[in-house]
Amino acid sequence: MNRFGFIIHPLEIDDFARKFSWAEKVPDSFIEKLTRVMPPVKASHITGVRSKTGKEIEGYFIGVTLTSKQMLTLPTDKVLKKIIKAGKKAQELGCQIIGLGAFTSVIGDKGITIARELDVPVTTGNSYTVATAIEGTKLAAAKMGHNLKEVMVTVIGATGSIGRAVSLILGQDLHNLQLVARNLEKLRNLREEIIQLNPGINLSCTTDIAAAVKISQVIISASGAVESLIMPSDLQPGAVVCDVARPRDVAGKVARERDDVLVIEGGIVEVPGPVNFNFNFGYPPKTSYACMAETMMLALEDRFEDYSLGPVLEIEKVKETMAMARKHGFKLAGLRSFERALSEDKIAEIRKRAEKKLIATC
Prior knowledge:
single chain; Rossmann fold; six-stranded parallel beta sheet; five-stranded mixed beta sheet; 12 helices; 16 strands
């Protein structure tokens, strides 16, 4: 049976207790010091991933104990060493391909150095993440009554590996597209690339996130930032936000203060078979992040090769992951918002409140 590994880490200190229950009883300051020196851990054994072709695989979650903030603030070489150690632990467990979860896929050169130091192939899973983010956004926009060819669509984190691929693919179908990132020069280069491929598109770029959000009806956000970027006061009534980032780009108070906008989680996938992750990473049974799913699909395909690495994703690989998903039975796990499933009735309520607010402001 083929075997995969997937490297995870606590997004915040509170997540450490998902694996170690005693962590709830000690100060955060102690845990922060401990996480810096702890070796990688085998978080769980994953069983029951079964393709609709009948093929079955197994895998392991391997935990790097650093939080998102630590990964971005500690020296990059030290963080990479911890991730590589986790990869080697996966090798020892017989994993034939390793996926990089959350910030382990962002640090350094987006998996290239890690892959070079391991004896088995590596993927960030970003190709399938792009595919599911676009699919989810289109579905959510339609349910909220938005015609993507008529509204302003914004990509936050547009120059990152996920954001760039999303922008290039969306650019083929949209009339109005806005790109947001920190580096204006990179933004302008991407803008020129998209315009060359799609001469008629209305394409702007900016580093001002709040200003961009205020004029947008549909947003895909994949920034890789530690702090929240999208605030309640900036969103239009009826806006759709697909938040691909982990930690989230959308502030938690949006859920409390804006019942007239639709925020969905990007890249949540239903996994085929009687899968048991044997670990609580915050999602319902049988569902995973798209990046996890890509790792599983490659194992099912016997594709033991480096995939989705580096700052530039190949658009053909995004399309290829969509084909693999159809073949093996992976699919978008409906629409979810702030870790809760969204029913049709709930979405209809959000849309109705948005329409009332828009009428009131006219």
